[in-house]
Amino acid sequence: MRSFGTLPLRGRRLPVVLVPGLGAPGYLLSTADRCARWGPARVLDVPGYGDPPGPACAATLGPLADTVARWLAEVAPGPVVLAGHSTGAQVALHAAVRRPDRVASLVLLAPTFPPHLRRTGPLVRAFARTAVHESPGVLPAVLPSYLKAGPRRLAACVRSAQSDAPERLMSSVRCPVTVVVGEHDALSPPHWAHRLASLAGRGQVVLVPGAHSFPHTAPGRTAAVLERAGAGLP
Predict the structure, then answer these.
(1) pLDDT at res. 150
(2) Which of 38, 91, 83, 114 is nearest to 177 (CA)?
């Protein structure tokens, strides 16, 4: 697994590790660049998408969480702020439970999927309601990764995310948890964020402008949340 790194410019904070949704790291680079103003930041290029053709199961939640957990154990310099976006938030949650010694703070950015979206029809309708609030600028950031992955791998990841139940894991997370959602995001609505945060031992919710792709459209606001998590601030 590759990681895209940025060097710290000033100050000392816990390193930030970002896990992208649907294996498309490009749209998180602007947030990582903002994080690099105060500490080390990495975006993980998770396997199973742009790799040579292989089994779609490599791109599902279980193997991805295993890979991120191994990266945390073998590569990360120490405890980190682990942040995942969308299906990447589900991956990050599983990895944090697997390696609690390596995750000092967990940030779930637009975590998927609430129970009512674990069926195809409601998910498609939520996607349509969210898409009208998205910036067209996010498409160039994700499309190359989606084309490399192909529909079979993308569908396998979405299906595995729909069969997951993040709410069952929240009580197993030992570190503070911040759940961040966009005000116009039907894929990860505020009531879902509040439910997840309430199930964590130390959870809080942050509502930000935008829709599902807010880490790309509001990188400064997203990085500010991550900075507070890295500094141990509420």
Answers:
(1) 84
(2) 83
The span from the CA of 193 to the CA of 35, in Å, is 23
Residue whose entry in the numeric block shows the structure tokens 């996607």 = 127
Beta bridge partners of 108: 84, 179
Q: Give me the residue label for tokens 């409601």.
A: 122
pTM: 0.90
In terms of Cβ atoms closer than 10 Å to its own Cβ (0-12, 13-18, 19+), residue 116 is exposed
**pLDDT averaged over consecutive 10-residue blocks of the chain (234 residues)?**
44 84 90 92 77 58 92 91 96 97 97 97 97 92 85 89 96 96 97 97 95 96 92 67
- In contact, 14 and 39? CB cutoff 8 Å: yes
Residue 153 — left, alpha, or beta (φ > 0 → left; ψ -120 to 50 → alpha)?
alpha
Q: For residue 193, give Cα distances in angstroms to 197, 219, 233.
A: 6, 20, 19
* Chain centre distance of CA 94: 11
